[in-house]
Specification:
164 residues, 6 strands
């Protein structure tokens, strides 16, 4: 009779833990929620595909960036990013502002994220104290100007050929 009770308790615990929350049975027989885990999908700018892994709801954004860099290196993806999580920003796919490294990942409400490398932007009239870091997403694409030059060249060629 005792073995049947243990098996039914394990089935109940399994049913409760399939929701993503992990439970621990206390001494009085009630279940206590330990933490909530969920799947995050992180797209790294310049990477061939997203990274997927489980995190706790209370994990910090900085820890998620660190875990992303470790998994990226473990999979030997290119381009090599480095290992310093301070050089990266994490964005939700629904918001254009970067997440603070000290806030909980669960507080953002999202499960899909974009990770970008910080870029130091220096304007001509800026002192070193006025420099600020921005992500690659916020800086204009260098290939865009090349495309504009090609478009002007093609327009000039079309005009000159149609003037016959």
């Amino acid at each position: 009779m005792k073995s049947k009770n243990i098996i039914s308790d394990k089935i109940i615990m399994l049913r409760k833990s399939t929701s993503g929350s992990v439970y621990d049975q206390t001494t009085d027989g009630s279940c206590k929620k330990l933490y909530k885990r969920f799947l995050v999908i992180v797209n790294v700018v310049g990477s061939p595909g997203p990274l997927r892994f489980m995190v706790n709801e209370d994990d910090l954004v900085g820890a998620v960036i660190d875990a992303t860099l470790k998994q990226y290196a473990r999979e030997a993806r290119l381009p090599a990013l480095g290992s310093n999580p301070d050089n990266f920003l994490l964005y939700t796919t629904t918001d254009a502002t970067a997440l603070n490294a000290w806030e909980a990942i669960g507080s953002s409400g999202g499960r899909n994220f974009i990770m970008c490398k910080k870029v130091l932007v220096q304007k001509p009239n800026m002192t070193t104290t006025d420099q600020f870091a921005r992500s690659e997403m916020m800086i204009s694409d260098p290939h865009r100007k090349k495309g504009m030059i090609n478009a002007k060249w093609k327009a000039w060629l079309n005009r000159s050929l149609s003037l016959n």
